[in-house]
Amino acid sequence: MSLINKNIPLSFTFDGKSYFGFEGDTLASALIRNKVRLVGRSFKYHRPRGIMGAGSEEPNALVEIHADGVCEPNRRATTIKLFDGLSAKSQNGSPSLGFDVLAINDWLSPFLSTGFYYKTFMWPKAFWEKVYEPAIRRAAGLGKIIQKPDPDSYDKGFLHCDVLVIGGGPAGLQAALDAGRVGKRVILANDDFVLGGRLLSDPILINDKPSIEWAQNVEAELRSMDNVRILERTTVYGAYDHGIFGALETKTDEIGGSGARMVLWKIYSKASILAAGATERPIAFANNDRPGIMLASAVRTYQKRFEVDPGVNIALFSNNNNALSTLHKVLIDARENEFVIDTQGRKSLKSIRLNDGRNIKADCLAVSGGWNPNVHLTCHQRSRPVWDEKKSCFLPNINSLPKNMHVIGAANGNFTMSEVFESVRLTGKALGHKPADSPPTDSETYEVTAFWHVKGKKRAWVDYQNDVTAKDITLAHQEGFSSVEHVKRYTTLGMATDQGRTSNVIGLAILADATGQTIPETGTTIFRPPFTPVPIGAFAGPHKEQHFKPTRLTPSHKYAEESGATFVETGYWKRSQWFAKEGEQGWRDSVDREVITTRGSVGICDVSTLGKIDIQGKDAGAFLNKVYVNSFKLLKPSKCRYGLMLREDGIAMDDGTSARFSDTHYVMTTTTANAGTVFRHLEFARQCLFPEMDVHLISTTEQWAQYSVAGPNARKLLQKIVDPEHDISNEAFPYMACGQVTVCGGTRARIFRLSFSGELAYEIAVPTRYGDALIRKLMNAGEEFGVCMYGTEALGVMRIEKGHAAGNELNGQTTAGHLGLGGFVSKKKDCIGKVLSQREGLIADDALRLVGFVAVDPSDQITNGAHFINIGDDRIATNDQGYMSSVAYSPELGHYVGLGFLKSGANRKGDELWAVDFVRNHHIKVRVVSPHFVDPDGERLRG
Amino acid sequence: MANLTLQSPLSGHSRKYLGITLREMSDFEIVSIAVVNGEETNFGKMFKKAFDAAPPSPATFSQTKTGKVLWTGQSQYFLFQDGQDDRLDEALAKTFEGKAYTTLQTDGWAAVEVAGSRVHDLLERFIPLDISHAKIGFGARTTAHHMSVLVMKTSEDTYELLTPRSSSKTFLEALEHVTGHISRART
Fold it and tell me: Domain map of chain B by residue range?
């Protein structure tokens, strides 16, 4: 029963040379099929390396996949499913894989021992960043990132199940079948593209049938169940709280195709069954990294599953009986004190030397140092595995597994098939799955004799990917690193992309030997997610380019686009910043025109982005009294009031106006930036601080399209829009009035007599469905007054001219007192933040106070962010008197004006100071003035 | 002066994919209903009288003769009513005779109906909730692609998704982006 379809040949290239493989191959098996032995260069010494494993544990065969001028580096050839047209390249060889000049590092290895750069590159100090580190980085490393956009798409998704089975080997298959048969919602995640796990490499009899046939029958039954979902090529990479797992599904290895290349799943499970199998470990001996030296299980995988022979003369070096099924010509049995002490053949293994003096010709050496259960996911919530002396491996700690996790099969140290099925049966029983009796299988035993390292003078590799040798570990210990965590970081053992899958336990054993401790006394490092590498693109998912974040559009967006608006992002909103007209040379021309037009006649600004919160309830007024510093409970219906809100620590949080429409109904407005924060704050206050109040909140920000109509002709314009039965004259509808009206022949609207610009102004709101139509009506109606749209820049200029605080002033450091609004704080009531706003430092006599500034020389430009220094004082931080928070050129006044915070500012009108701006190296003299530059008495807005 | 013409958030967008149909829903009103503290029992009676149905329990919506009602929070509901009436909140306030506060919400939301045999293939990449196994009548508020969304399951393969109007174009782009992956899914 072949798993390779030789009727479907697939062409691919490796380092530019063309080869053929078959459907069912991995890149690794296809390379072996084509007798390619040398596939990469090692990280540090640039040693020639070949394929060592057959799965995700592979430390050597890392390649780049290329397409369309981009590449994906550091992909394990053993996990790349071969596809037609695959272009793969080797890594870390220069100028070529066969002739790598940096292989000289191998000859210089006596000088490149662990931590050599800490010891060697001590001086001159400045050379580290500029010379040494760049040189080391160039010489070391793996694949190269081509700095181009990733052409692929990735998805993220959410799956839910009763039982997540991790691993599609015999244990996982049987566990999924048991759970599926009793109707559980099952997800079976298998990192390979074929189900079966070790059965694909170690065929045995199950139920008197070949195990592959058994696996295929189980798969067929699972696929027939609606309640079972099989995720192929899906690696569960992390176990998180509450039964949540992260999993990466690879749809294709092809770059730049259509559809999602990978899907990052968040799996919510009620129970999980870890059946992730085990990873075979090598044995450390001299020159054990040559191409042709492989894990014994990998050799069997290539022989049985892929039907290719990794070598002609295969020798087997093992310390256990499991590896004996590997087809071999020579056995070196460590249990019989037979050891490999050295190997020959630089780019391909040629021979091996044994401790008995024999020199054996071999082009492939299959090595087995025993098996390590894949316990990683059991440890992602800080569980530590426990050492099993008999099996010479770490097992999951069943007393501290992630909640509702069960471990079965080889992942649990059940290395024989009868043990595997028994572990499945017991777990199924515990989960109420009514498991079937364990099927009869070939009798197997697993006997291992702990053996880790053939000691000698030459280098024996432990961590192949990071080029860490046994000597490095013993040297680290000699230099005082006895903790396994310290040794890991000093030597980089287990810190490569394979996370030490093949190296950690050997490293621990060598360290234990050096320290004279046992392996459990030496302990383990901590396994953390991800189990295998996850591309950053998969973590980002679809959230890139225009999908990176939501874009919020105002109701007038289309009209603004048509009107030449330049947009600015404020939070997620796109707001019109200014509207350029033909002939204008720059943004200042546009903004000045908008300000002049508004102050001279009428301008319209979309203020729909301001947060709007409808507050209803019998206690709505009392509630507002709690959240604002000033009183709202006694505000009369049809009236608005400015309000200032504090955080609990007394710092100003937000400001805005609230309108009262009825005894039980207020409408609060917030700044655009703080709309969400304020709503959360109010909900917290409502639900947690004042649950006894009858208060109900709902955001109406999106419900209403709201436009500010400002300028001396604002009323005249609006009288053309507001239906005549509603009187909006100054007498009937004075400053700070509000009401519900109709516009344009019966359309429902809200109107507020508010002014941020300081002009006669209104805000008119209609249901957003009419927002586009209303702005067009308003602009048409305003033509006779020369109306203009104005954007956030003009809005900013006018509010600075008027002395209104905004985001620059409500900057998380200022109190009501700093803002000059101390008088607003009601003495008759309590409010959130009131007590802490009275802290000594915040109300000191010399506390900062918002004041206005003009340049002493009117032609000077004031700059935002400048700090104030008294004339005659040194320009140093200790003499800081405050800072400029907002600056604008005032077209009305013909010079720059600024707002800023100055110590004792209220008492320093007329003082001259230095405004020192070290960022722009621009220092000018400024004079302290009132912050109200335009219409200080408010005659215009009340007009 | 002529009345203002209305505009739907997604301009009536409708598109078919293999196994998935996306369609903007319009011609209905949404009113938020918040029950006055302590008036839950009276409100329940009035609601039943008005809509011939009990207010829905958490994570569900109820069908009414003229639309449906979704539970949105403790003593809070969204009422969906077919047809256009931008003063429905005022009418409902009268219906509930001071036992509930009402707020028009129609304009705050864009609604998309997602339906078809592959709808769950799409929504499992979009909605974090376990909706494929939820019963018809399931309704909840959640997030999708960093945006707020209300989900209602109206049949085994039909869902109504509501998302804030201002970001609804991004929402639709995201939905179609993922839909494109599904319809061209590589197997």
Answer: 14-26+108-183, 28-106
- Residues B113 and B159: beta-carbon distance below 8 Å: yes
Chain B residues in contact with A702 by the CB 8 A cut-off are 107-109, 164-166
Structure-token match 């798993």, residue found: A3
- Restricting to A residues 149-168, those with a Cβ less than 8 Å away from any Cβ of B are 153, 155-160
Other Cβ atoms within 10 Å of A202 Cβ, number: 20
Considering only CB atoms, A744 lies closest to which of B1, B128, B186, namely B1
Interface predicted TM-score (ipTM): 0.96
Distance CA B159, CA A335 (A): 65
pLDDT at B103 over 50: yes
Q: What is the pLDDT of residues B80-91, one digit of tens each?
A: 999 999 999 999
Q: What is the spatial distance between Cα A465 and Cα A463, in angstroms, rounded to a whole number? A: 6
> Between chains, do B101 and A744 touch, taking CB under 8 Å as contact?
no
**Residue A336: other Cβ atoms inside 10 A:** 10
Chain A / chain B CB contacts < 8 angstroms: 153
CATH number of the domain encompassing residue A675: 3.30.70.1400
Tell me if A681 sits within 8 A of A666, measured CB to CB.
no
Distance of CA A498 to the CA centre of its chain: 21
CATH at residue A193: 3.50.50.60
Structurally, at CATH architecture level, domain B14-26+108-183 sits in 2-Layer Sandwich (3.30)
In chain A, the residue whose alpha carbon lies closest to the alpha carbon of B145 is: A543
Distance CA A263, CA A276 (A): 20
Q: Token pair for residue A32?
A: 């072996």
**Which domain does A84 fall in, by range?**
1-149
Identify which of B87, B129, B186 has the shortest CB distance to residue A748. B87
**Residue B184 scores a pLDDT above 60:** no
pLDDT at B2 over 70: no
Same domain for A639 and A681?
yes
Number of domains in chain A: 7
Distance of alpha carbon B130 from its chain centroid, rounded? 17
Residues A214 and A105 in one domain: no
Q: How confident is the model at residue A499 (pLDDT cuts 50, 70, 90)?
A: confident
Q: Tell me, yes or no, whether A839 lies in a domain.
A: no
Q: How confident is the model at residue A256 (pLDDT cuts 50, 70, 90)?
A: confident
| Inter-chain touch B186–A665, beta carbons under 8 Å | no
Mutate to test the interface with A, among B3, B4, B76 (most CBs of A within 10 A): B4
∠ CA A576-A582-A583, nearest 5°, is: 120
Contact assignment for B108 to A699 by CB distance below 8 Å: yes
**Structure tokens, A784:** 């006779």
Judged by DSSP in three states, A336 sits in: helix
Question: Which residues from A are below 8 Å from B103, CB to CB?
Answer: 614, 616, 698, 700, 703
CA distance A18 to A129: 42
Same domain, A19 and A65: yes
Residues of A in contact with B4 (CB under 8 A): 743-744, 747, 766, 770, 773-774, 777
**CATH homologous superfamily of B28-106:** Heterotetrameric sarcosine oxidase (3.30.70.1520)
Within-domain flag for A100: yes
Task: Give how far A488 is from chain B: nearest CA, Å.
Answer: 38
Query: What does the DSSP 8-state code read for residue A825?
Result: S
pTM (two decimals): 0.92
The domain that contains A905 carries what CATH number?
2.40.30.110
| Inter-residue contact A27 to A472 (CB < 8 Å) | no
